[in-house]
Write a structure and sequence with these properties.
heterodimer; A: about 110 residues; mainly beta; Immunoglobulin-like; 4-stranded antiparallel β-sheet; about 0% helix; B: about 110 residues; 6-stranded mixed β-sheet
Chain lengths: ~110, ~110
């Protein structure tokens, strides 16, 4: 039972590059989320989705984009990477407002 | 608005008790508690819904005071495995498309020493 799978686990980007962080879940959860966690800080919600085709902004959406074409997948797109986007990114999923299950995270450095 | 957790950090000896508080300036529908060990993903502990019901999970329990918009997490007879950072996540609404949206506190780092 894989749960929430994030790829890649680590990535180094140069300023101005773009990339997509992948997230897939096999629990048939309808809700999915993207968070970022800066060192020693809490989780900040970037975007979330309550179902395929429905997404909404969280606390810190600037510089990111998402799409949700299937129940299983919720990719996060970074356009024009900036040093301020260096962080650990967590994807999570839940069945409606039930407990959220987190992936192992993607550690992203932008130099 | 981000909930405020207190204390920011606490050091315990095995067997001691601790209380972690989470306060919000907004009316809350629910409070979620998660624990994160260093370098790992957060793991769910429990959900408290408005109504003040106290929940328990082995030696970890929590309460939610709806009047004060405050939740407290109680760790009794702490074990080494309790070490980690504890986060509260607050949910303010379950209107359409808003349910499940959590705003997390800054975390409380708990260290349990032998």
């Amino acid at each position: 039972n894989a749960g929430v799978t994030q790829t890649p686990k680590f990535r180094i980007l140069k300023i101005g590059q773009s990339m997509t962080l992948q997230c897939t879940q096999d629990m048939n959860h309808n809700y999915m989320y993207w968070y970022r966690q800066d060192p020693g800080m809490g989780l900040k919600l970037i975007y979330y989705s309550v179902g395929a085709g429905i997404t909404d902004k969280g606390e810190v959406p600037n510089g990111y984009n998402v799409s949700r074409s299937t129940t299983e997948d919720f990719p996060l797109r970074l356009e024009l990477a900036a040093p301020s986007q260096t962080s650990v990114y967590f994807c999570a999923s839940s069945y409606s407002e039930q407990p959220q299950h987190f992936g192992d995270g993607t550690r992203l450095s932008i130099l | 608005q981000q909930p405020v957790q207190s204390p920011q950090a606490v050091i315990l000896r095995e067997g001691e008790d601790a209380v972690i508080n989470c306060s919000s300036s907004k009316a809350l529908y629910s409070v979620h508690w998660y624990r994160q060990k260093h370098g790992e993903a957060p793991v769910f502990l429990m959900i408290l819904l408005k109504g003040g019901e106290q929940k328990g999970h082995e030696k970890i329990s929590a309460s939610f005071n709806e009047k004060k918009q405050q939740s407290s997490l109680y760790l009794t007879a702490s074990q080494l495995s309790y070490s980690g950072t504890y986060f509260c996540g607050t949910e303010v609404s379950r209107f359409y498309n808003q349910g499940g949206k959590l705003i997390f506190g800054q975390g409380t780092e708990l260290s349990v020493k032998p």
